[in-house]
Amino acid sequence: MPKDAPRRWDRRMQQRLAHGEAAALGELYDRFASLVHSLAHRVLGDECGADRITREVFAHVWENPDAYDPRQGPLRSWIATLTHQRAVRRLRQTESAALALSGEGTPEELERKVRRASAAARADYIVTAMPTPLRAALELAYFQRRDYRQTAADLGVTEDEARRRLRLGLQLLSTANDTADPSASPAPGAPPGHGTAL
């Protein structure tokens, strides 16, 4: 597949949505609904809330296809950023309401909870979006407790290559905590957002 094929798909999808093609929305939903739902669920920890965010995100994309700028990054990242921002906003609202109602906890604890949920969702997204060789190395090293030599043998690569993949994967994961305000638009240039981080 040509390197630009995903971007062409993104641009074509945006055009189809802008023309009100319902089949395009269905295709987009089939491709990204599990991503949207899992990110929302990771932030909210609530199935109903994740369902609601999923509906809201796809409604927003359907009603505002021109809000996506293909020059700023992949459609997948834009949709993930929309999801993340809405889920974090919803979490903050529900937790603030619970705090006001019960009087238990502090605003600082609420913000820590929001930051933790935001970072966990970002880490999940980063792992699923990273290239397969990096993800495979991290999975072997961290989920199967393989050292870099065993990882190299399992992947059929040199030890230097295994170390490189692990280092790059960890560098990507380290960006999960980069956003100071989880409801704000992330900083340009950081993966994986619409030209921004999630």
Automatic annotation (TrEMBL):
Keyword entries, A-Z: Sigma factor, Transcription, Transcription regulation
Positions of region (Disordered): 176-198
Domain RNA polymerase sigma-70 region: 28-94
SUPFAM superfamilies: Sigma2 domain of RNA polymerase sigma factors, Sigma3 and sigma4 domains of RNA polymerase sigma factors
A matching Pfam family: Sigma70_r2
Domain of life: Bacteria
Protein family (similarity comment): Belongs to the sigma-70 factor family. ECF subfamily.
Name this protein carries in UniProt: Sigma-70 family RNA polymerase sigma factor
